[in-house]
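lol forgot to send this yesterday, sorry. struct tokens for the thing we talked abt
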């Protein structure tokens, strides 16, 4: 019995060792930084077909690889939640994406903030929402796979504003109600239109649904909103930012294995250098058309 226990313990330790991520010395020793990133045709994250702007996160992590003096190898992921699967850091050293930093996510991996962030509510031109109470009687579109859903519920609960959650699925350019637990909305309730996790999100999806009148209000992070709003004329002609969902300033971060503290710390040093040298602002302005400091004012 004692031998079996020892064997099982040894196997468990071996399995754990295999799933341990590499640290800074491993990256420098192999002269390769393995980067996990989603190819979602987004200039915020990664858009390899766009030669002029292949993605803010992509270019930022490329600058980090150059800073370390190593080459970069891309490992593509299909979905945001794939990052949190067991064994992710067997294959990557860093996750370069717009990961909203939450307490739950920090338990899974080290998250190093690279930019301040908030959640902005937007609507069609002419929509009037300046406080949470104004959402009563309106349809608010959120995706279950994004953190905005929980943030919205928490804010409504704190303000003691009643709401219903109705699940919808995009079909033929409309949002079809799913039959499970449908609740009839009224003017005294906020109706949350929840798109399930299995929906394959595509760029501009939530903006188009609001513009078409399938929802009254959408929620996106300020970083993504700034990139699209200041670069896309048709959004300025159809969409208006309404209010910030929360008063607190949040952060987006890059992800590292819990067993890669030196690599995560070096990324922090790189960010400090990039922001003090003007490198970060130059990259930011190329994607957002506004200065980083002007963006901070809008978020805070």
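and heres what i got for the seq, position by position
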């Amino acid at each position: 019995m004692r031998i079996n226990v020892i064997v099982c313990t040894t196997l468990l330790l071996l399995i754990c060792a295999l799933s341990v991520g590499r640290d800074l010395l491993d990256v420098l020793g192999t002269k390769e930084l393995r980067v996990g990133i989603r190819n979602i045709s987004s200039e915020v994250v990664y858009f390899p077909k766009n030669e002029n702007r292949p993605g803010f996160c992509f270019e930022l992590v490329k600058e980090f690889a150059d800073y370390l003096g190593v080459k970069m190898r891309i490992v593509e992921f299909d979905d945001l939640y794939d990052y949190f699967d067991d064994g992710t850091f067997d294959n990557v050293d860093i996750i370069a994406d717009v990961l909203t930093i939450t307490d739950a996510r920090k338990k899974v991996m080290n998250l190093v903030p690279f930019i301040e962030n908030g959640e902005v509510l937007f609507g069609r031109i002419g929509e009037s929402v300046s406080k949470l109470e104004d959402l009563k009687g309106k349809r608010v579109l959120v995706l279950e796979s994004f953190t905005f859903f929980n943030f919205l519920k928490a804010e409504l609960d704190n303000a003691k504003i009643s709401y219903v959650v109705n699940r919808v699925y995009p079909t033929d350019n409309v949002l079809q109600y799913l039959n499970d637990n449908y609740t009839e909305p009224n003017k005294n309730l906020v109706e949350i239109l929840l798109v399930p996790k299995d929906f394959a999100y595509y760029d501009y999806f939530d903006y188009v649904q609001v513009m078409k009148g399938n929802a009254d209000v959408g929620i996106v992070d300020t970083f993504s909103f700034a990139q699209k709003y200041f670069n896309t004329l048709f959004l300025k002609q159809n969409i208006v930012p309404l209010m910030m969902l929360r008063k607190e300033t949040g952060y987006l971060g890059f992800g590292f294995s819990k067993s890669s503290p030196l690599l995560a710390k070096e990324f922090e040093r790189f960010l400090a250098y990039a922001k003090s040298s003007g490198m970060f602002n130059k990259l930011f302005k190329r994607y957002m058309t506004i200065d980083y400091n002007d963006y901070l004012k809008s978020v805070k």
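Confidence is low (pLDDT under 50) at residues 5-18. anyway ping me if u want another try
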